[in-house]
Amino acid sequence: MEASTKQRELTGEKAQRIIDAMRTSVAARGIAGSTFEHVSREAGVSRGLLHYYFGTKERLLVEVVRRDSEIRVARLDEPLANAASVDDVLRVLVSSLQDMLDNEPGYFDLLFELFIAGRHNAGIQREVGELFKRSREHVVEILRAKENEGVIAPRFDLESVVAYLFSIADGIAIQVLSEPDKDFESVFEAGAAAARFLLRAK
After folding, report:
1. What homologous superfamily is domain 1-55 in, according to CATH?
2. The pTM is what?
3. Nearest CA-CA partner of 42 in 60, 68, 59
4. Mean of the pLDDT values across residues 30-36?
5. pLDDT at residue 6 above 50?
6. Which pLDDT score, from 0 to 100, does residue 11 have?
7. pLDDT recorded at residue 184
8. Model confidence band, residue 201 (pLDDT cutoffs 50, 70, 90)
9. Domain map (residue ranges) of the chain
10. What is the pLDDT of residues 118-167, one digit of tens each?
11. Is the dihedral of CA 182, 188, 191, 197 positive or negative?
12. At what angle do helices 158-178 and 185-199 cross, to 10 degrees?
C-alpha cells in the first residue's frame, strides 16, 4: 500500500499528537534536524508507527501542511459567505494572512521548507502541487458564489485571479518573516488595491 494511502488511515488523537510533534520539531530544529526519533518521542508513539504510516519525514511534513492548509482555508468559509462587498472580501483575506503571520508563522516555515524539499524530490513536488491546487480550488468555489451573487466581478478567469492572490500572499509572507522589524502596512494596502482591481471590473 502506498504511503500516501496509509496517511489517510491514521486518524484521531494519536494522529494529531504526531502532527503536532512534527510541527513543533520543525519549528525548533528545521526539517534536517527533525528525525522520526524526535517526533515519536514527543508524540509518545513508536518510531515504527511513523515509518509504517508515513515512510519518510517529508511525507509526514506533507500531512502536517495538508491538515493545516485545510483548517486555514476552511476558516474563510463563513466570513466570505457573509461578505457583501469587494471590500468585505478583501478584509477577510487580508486579516486571515495577517493573523497567520502574527500567530502562526510556523505554517509558512513548514510550507517553504516543504517546497524546497520538493525541488529535489519529484514525489514531494507532486504532493505540494496538490496541496496548492486543493486550496486554490476551495477558495475559487467560495468566490464563485460571491461572483454569482454579484459581489465580485473578476477581470480575468477566477482560477487565475485566485492563483495570483495566493502568490501575493506567499510573497508578502516571505518578506514579513525575513524583516520582522519592518512596517509592511503599506505593502498590505498595495496588495489589497491590486486585488480590488482584479476582483471588481465594474
Report:
1. Homeodomain-like (1.10.10.60)
2. 0.80
3. 60
4. 82
5. no
6. 61
7. 95
8. low
9. 1-55, 63-199
10. 888 888 888 889 889 999 999 999 999 999 999 999 999 999 999 999 99
11. negative
12. 180
Could you identify the residue written with the cell 508507527? Answer: 49
Give, in words, the CATH class of 63-199. Answer: mainly alpha
Residue whose C-alpha is closest to residue 90's, from 188, 183, 171? 188
